[in-house]
Amino acid sequence: MSFALGLTGSIGMGKSTTALIFAEEGCAIWDADAAVHRLYEKNGAAVDLVASMFPQAVVNGRVDRGQLRDIIAGDERALPRIEAIVHPLVTADREIFRAAAQSDIVVFDIPLLFETGGDTGMDAVACVWIDAETQHRRVLERGTMTVEQFTQILQKQMPIEEKMARADYLIQTDTRQHAAVQVRAILDQIRKQIQNA
Can you tell me which residues bind ATP (predicted)? Predict the structure, then answer.
């Protein structure tokens, strides 16, 4: 079984870029957001289950994320009900991926790793981080969300200081080059650990 490394951080802190660096270094990458997209697509495992609870959320045979957001915004009981459907499916997808992975280290890119208790299934956790000012600038430069939406997302996430305190490895993402140096050092350390086990 491959070594499971959880990769987490807060929005705009460079997690996706860091996951790419891990991939370049020979790691298999499982992306939680991509798994949810697969579950919501036509014939995805979540479509019929979501439709049975919130029929208006399914449009043209796939779960419409915009509709889902509106439902969640209008009903505080909706999110836990949706999570009860999606989380077990995501966990199953992750386990299938890990069992089939050919690389010695599998990186699990999970934004809410600590919040969902996903860290308990990992051999170690790496957390990306950057100062709040850079984070704010990066998120707003994408042009995909307002300051209010950014603030709402931050409120749902565990404070970055807490994530950093709980992680085994920290990766500062001030530049891609610096992140790559840290990724290589982490992989060296894990591979030595695997050899000595």
Answer: 12-17
